[in-house]
Amino acid sequence: MFPNASYKDTLMNDPSKGEGLKGLERPRIILLSPGAVPALWSHIPDQSPFEVERISDIKNESFPGKRHGCLGIVANCGENNGSGIDFRAISMILAKAGRVPVIALADNPSPLDRLRLSNMGVGKILPCDAGVTEAAEALKKLSTAARHGELAYIVHGNVEIAEGIRGDLEKIGCAALAFSNPGDMILAWFDEAPDLVLIDWDDADIDAGDFCSIIKRDLYLRDIPVVAVISDTCPEKRRTIFDAGADDYVTVPILRRELIARVAFRINQRRKRPPFRITTDGGIERRSRSDAGQSQNCATPSLLVNGRVKVLIADDQQPILSMLEHHFRREDWDVTVVTDGESAYKALGAGVFSFALLDTSMPFRTGYDIIKWMRGAGVNVNCKTIIMTAEDPDRAAAHAFSIGADDLIKKPINPDAMVSRMKRYLSGNSCHE
């Protein structure tokens, strides 16, 4: 490699000094171009400070992205037989690239395509007539830029609320950017995809429902968690939120502990190495790099049990049991009903379930007790646990998420909203697949 940075920069800025490269390894750029090679890439002069290696077969077993001396990968998306960007091919490139930066060559991609590429990990999009030097400069910037921690985007019409959320998240090391409308957020998303979006659901000008529906219907964007910020938690409002595809919600006025618990949980679900963990006192803190590196892959496996959805409902109120059982059986789900915590404990220890709906005030053991036992003993580890409570939902949520609950729903329960929420878990929209 180059002996020092200043010598390397001098050579890159003055190709006429190419003779000085003799005996040194030139930085390699991998050009992945299944179709025609861009004009400016077809003939690279010998004195160029870069070596360009072209690959036309992305499935090639000898894919060189991780080789020593690779500055980065340039994916040519401009020649695809007029059918647009091949996102499947891009995902294969990124899977094999490791930590090597990737940029794309594409002319006038649509805003949605730009969001997809950014969310998949493409660091920058250049026009198809960009040359080797321009691509190399972009790759160098990407290789030296390091974002620390996680990034949340906040879209809210009330500046005070947005700044309050941003301040709370930054206290746990989660960077946050606030926007007054989705358009400004999308412009930022072109450059860097967020780990989570919090969006004002009450402001008609923001039209959060439409934005969320677009994101959650898209194969390459739907893994971004969307958390609605609302002032009204009536059953119909919650149903609207989940039908649109939102993963969660927080209510105004916002409780800091609840906000942090919900955000940390959603980001942990998406990440293969969860960045946050629960402390012994029920708080949230960032994992150390070594600790995060030892974390297990948290990509959510299938919730089906022998091809079926199996649900356990534990509540001491018979009307709730009957109502939920009726709606779940209408979905052709297998349902087990128990009326106290001890029976729920035995059922979960004896069988495997897709979901466990647990009341917080059952006899013998509460829903909180059951979840603590499940997480501590490693019982039904793939089962989604949903707390049902008549307590204050904000305070209950902070406690529920701190002990490892997957979700919480407030009584009185809207069964249609509950079904919508559970179907989203089954579709995989709430987790990183």
The CATH architecture assignment of the largest domain turns out to be 3-Layer(aba) Sandwich
CATH superfamily of the largest domain: Response regulator
Mean pLDDT: 76
CATH topology of the largest domain: Rossmann fold
Which spans have pLDDT < 50 for at least 5 consecutive residues?
A: 1-24, 289-300, 429-433
Secondary-structure class: alpha/beta
Strand content: 15-25%
Task: Quickly count the domains.
Answer: 3
Record field, number of beta strands: 17
Ends apart, CA distance between termini = 38 Å
Figure out the total of helices. Answer: 15
Trace the largest sheet across and list its strands. 2-1-3-4-5
Major beta-sheet overview: 5 strands, parallel
Shape: elongated
Q: Report the radius of gyration as a whole number of Å.
A: 25 Å
Name the helicity range: 25-40%
In the CATH scheme, the class of the largest domain would be: Alpha Beta
Task: Describe this structure as you would to a colleague.
- With 433 residues, this protein is α/β, with parallel strands linked by helices.
- It folds into three domains: 5-144, Rossmann fold (3-Layer(aba) Sandwich); 150-293, Rossmann fold, CATH 3.40.50.2300; 310-427, Response regulator (Rossmann fold).
- The chain is 37% helix and 19% strand.
- The protein has 15 helices and 17 strands.
- The protein has helices at residues 5-13, 87-97, 111-120, 132-144, 159-170, 182-191, 208-217, 235-244, 256-270, 289-293, 318-330, 341-350, 367-377, 393-402, 415-427, and strands at 28-32, 51-55, 70-76, 102-105, 124-126, 150-155, 174-179, 196-200, 226-230, 248-251, 276-278, 284-286, 310-314, 334-338, 355-359, 384-389, 407-410.
- The strands form four sheets. It has a five-stranded parallel sheet, sandwiched between helices.
- Helix 8 links the parallel strand 9 and strand 10.
- It is elongated and about 80 Å long.
- The two termini are 38 Å apart.
- The relative contact order is 0.07.
